[in-house]
Amino acid sequence: xxxxxxxxxxxxxGPSHNYGGLSDGNLxxxxxxxxxxxxxxxxxxGLEKMRSLVRAGLVQGVLPPLPRPNFDLLVSAGFTGSDxxxxxxxxxxxxxxxxxxxxxxxxxxxxxxxxSPSADTSDGxxxxxxxxxxxxxxxxxEHPDTTASLISIFAGDHRFAVHAALPAHPxxxxxxxxxxVRLCAEHGARGVELFVYGRDAAESVxxxxxxxxxxAAESVxxxxxxxxxxxxxxxxxxxxxxxxxFHNDVVCVGALDTLFFHEAAxxxxxxxxxxxxxxxxxxxxxxxxxxPEAEVPLEDAIRSYLFNSQLLQFPDEDRLVxxxxxxxxxxxxxxxxxxxxxxxxxxxxxxEFVDVRQSMRNGGGPACLRLRVVMTEDELAxxxxxxxxxxxxxxxxxxxxxxxxxxxxxxxxxxxPSFADECRVAREELLKILELEDLx
Length: 440
Hints:
Radius of gyration: 20 Å
Structural class: alpha/beta
Low-confidence stretches: 23-30
Oligomer: single chain
Distance between the termini: 38 Å
Number of strands: 15
């Protein structure tokens, strides 16, 4: 076993962060649709969360925002002329399409890709498969630019394998790490990879969309060279999806040997836990922490995003730390459960609440904002160092955000052609700081 660390790569929230209400099944997105957002505050909040983990002694990375607006979408829809003419015409004729082109949803990097560490893969490479996110138009635009970012950051095919996204067809609908959990004894040890799906490939599901298919999970597991005996694929509870858990990470999070989940997370909880124990036999003893419906109603769990939290191993702490949104502290049932949980002797010993309200209002908590990448020392040394954060770099990024981002943005502001230039200038400045000018 090679020593390894879990690096959290957070998405740097982009200058076009707005409440467009584009995501069917995401209750917070729908509830706040049309409200005025604050891109500057959102990005600063996200960077402050990253800073807190750097100060705790964790390795923290960042992924840059994607180029917005996405002119390829607008040109494909038949809009022609200069950038100004394209935006003005789209604002008049297809305002929802313009909102999709401006979407800053790549900030939620839990959806950027599925990642399998080299300890789990047959070829010993660190594997990435960018998610096609084909269920939602605004998210389906992301994977070409996400792939380019991953290739720039994780260059070198003797250590990293960046795959193409799965086919953009409903049968292959893939939502990335938001429906994936890795369990292990230590980060560098061989682990078990849990994939959670919402529907079978050809299955039609009424109500809110079940975004992840079993076929997508199976395809990613195959391409990553995972051991079938150490891979578990289970179904998310239909009830959870209907209640607004559009991704499994809204009702479940795991780290090391611990799985923290709501009673309504899985279609068959007993079978899920048995499959994980069987797959982990000889590797680790599973520590399940199930939150009963009687103590935390599913609606409270989803509204507070208790499970859309980061579950982390802090240096010099014997028990795991749950980094949760402030909303979980302000919801009576989840606050009470957290207090009781840490008072016990279970694997989670502390809850740290963070302010990511700008993201939360669009339906993304702390776990949505990060992509977990387990890396050996050699892999970390070959990763692009410009995206590995320290406090000085965070200060520099925050200063750039304060210079270039608006502190007030409504969906109607997207019709202003000058805003496209603002977004380009802001992103180019950030890319320069991160030494990723090749992505400009």
